[in-house]
Amino acid sequence: MRKISLSQIVVFIVLFATIISLGLGGTWLLFGQLELGDFRGIALVLSAGILCFIFALIVYRLFLWKFPLEAGDIKKDSKKEFIYHVYLLFFLLVFYPVMRSGFTPLPVMRLIYLMLGAKLGDNTYSSGIILDPLFVEVGNNTLIGQYALIVPHALENERLGHYKVTIGNNVTIGAHAVVMANVTIEDNALVATGAIVTKGTYISAGEVWAGVPAKCIKKSQIEGA
Question: Where do the structural domains in the chain lie, given as residue ranges?
């Protein structure tokens, strides 16, 4: 694992301070003068937390708009590594606690993943965790089961990089399954509960994959195939 440098931490702190300032200022402007009764303090704290999270999403997207993080290997001490570590701090300190909490309703999590850069088709939801949503594309009517993991990054000793995960339409990813980097899953496929789909795997349309590591156990479940 590569060390996050002081300069990268400083950049994140400046961005985080901006987020907090916007969140607190917005809360005061919107709710500071309202009569909220005995629950005024609780209401203001909750409002500030929600606004800070919304501004964190906005600042995160603006940061990546200015400094894009592209798929592929990340060389040590490169500009891309600097961007990645600031990006990583956003997730470690702001987004992962919400993504992993299990309390956020699925429709709200869908909106959060979309704002984090994931491409999700109509009627597609994740009850699991999509790491690095920026590198994940999912089609329509697809379900990612509870506690499943989509992992588009490779972090292996000194090796570091992001590789796109593409999932098609009408796909089911079972609970506790893991889909690793650079995986493609075509339409109508199914990944069984607890399966681990290793890096670079290609799952064809209608196939059923299961096991550790996952292997094809049924060639096609498409009607008429």
Answer: 1-99, 105-225
Closest residue by Cα to residue 19 from 49, 47, 44, 40: 49
Joined tokens for residue 24:
């607190």
- CATH level 3 topology of 105-225: UDP N-Acetylglucosamine Acyltransferase; domain 1 (2.160.10)
Token pair of 30 as six digits: 């919107």
Q: List pLDDT tens digits, range 140-180.
A: 999 999 999 999 998 887 789 999 999 999 999 999 999 99
Q: Report the Cα–Cα distance between both ends of the chain, in Å, rounded.
A: 45
The answer to whether the CB of 118 falls within 8 A of the CB of 111 is no
Classify residue 126 as exposed, middle or buried by CB count within 10 Å of its CB (0-12, 13-18, 19+): buried
Spatial separation of the C-alpha atoms in residues 158 and 140, rounded to whole Å: 36
* Helix 6-31 vs helix 40-66: crossing angle, to nearest 10: 130
User: Per residue, what are the HEC states of 162-182?
Assistant: ECCEEECCCCEECCCCEECCC
pLDDT digits (tens, 9 = 90+) for 94-147: 999 988 887 889 999 999 999 999 999 999 999 999 999 999 999 999 999 999
Catalytic residues: 153
